[in-house]
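User: Here's a chain of 335 residues. Predict its fold as C-alpha cells.
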Amino acid sequence: MDAGVGNGDDGMYDLRRAFGALSDETKVGAVIEALCSEGKVAESVQALEQVYGTGRAKVPNKTKTVMIDAAVTSGDTSNISLVMTALAPTLNGYGVSTCAYKPEASKMEIPDQQRQSAVLYATTFLSVNIVSIGLELVDVTTGVDTDIPGELFLLEVLFLFADVFLWRRDAIKKVMDGLQRIFEKDNIRKCRVEASSFVAAYLLGVPLLCYRPSRESMALIEAKDNLDKLLVWAMAGPASEVQIDGKLIETDETVALNLLKSLPTSMRRGLGLTGEEEALNRVRWALAEASKLLQFHSGLLAEVERRMLAGASVGECVQFVEQLASGTPPSPARA
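Assistant: Prediction complete.
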C-alpha cells in the first residue's frame, strides 16, 4: 500500500519537475489551452489577463488560435466577443479599417428585395404541379377519370402565356429565382459569403467572428459608437453575392434594416432616420462601403475563402491574417 502511494508521489513529482522545466510562456499557454479544451472560455480570458496584463504582445499565436476556436465552438457569441476584446491588443490586422457615413457618399442599389415573393411564386408553381401529378396518379390507380389535372395544366399554360406577352416574363423570373433559393446548395457561394463576413468583421474590428451577422449578435455590441461598422459588416455578405452575379441567394438586407429599426427613437432622429427611405439609403451606403472594402482586400478574401473551403477554423484564419499583417510568411493551408 505504502509502495503504491510512493510510486504515485514519485510520478507526481516527476510531472511537477517536468512542468517546472518548461518556460513560463509554455506553462501559461498550456493552462489556457487546457481551460479552452474543457469549454472554460471565460476562465481562459481571466488567466490571460492575470498573467499578461496589458502587455499581451507575447501571447503565443497557438494560444490565440485555441482561444478563438474555443469561443466559436461554444456557440456563444458573448464568448467570441469576450475573447476578441481580450486579444485585440495583440492583433496587428484587427480593426485596421474605418468607415463613417456621409450623406453625399456613393451608394449601391440593393439588387433584390423580393425574396419572399420569389419563394412564394416557386412554392405555388411546385404545389400546382405536385397536385396535378398526384391527382393523375389517383385517376390511374382508381380508374376514375377527372378533368382536374388537365384543367390545372391548362391554367398553368395560360398563366405562362400571359406572363410572356403581358408581364415581360416577370413571373417566370420570380419562379426561377425562387426555385434557385429553395434547391440550390452552392457550397462555394456559401463559403464566399462567410469569408466576406469574416474579413469585414476582422478588418473593421467587430469582435464577433461568427461568420454571418444576426439580430442576436448585433445586440451584443453598443450600436451608438459602432453603427457604421455594424452596417458595413451586415452588408459584406450581400456585397460578395452582388460581385458574383448580382443576386442575393444566401443573404439579404434585412439584418441591417432591422438594426436601424431597433435603434431608440431619439437616436434615429439624431441620425436623420425619419422614414423608410432614409434607412434604405443608409443600408445602400453600407453595401457600397462593404463592396469597396472587399474589392480592396480581394487577395486576402480569396485566400481566406480557399482556406475555409479546405477546412480551416476561425482561429486559423485569424492566424493567417495576422501573419500577413506582420509580414511573416503565412503557414500553408490544409491540404
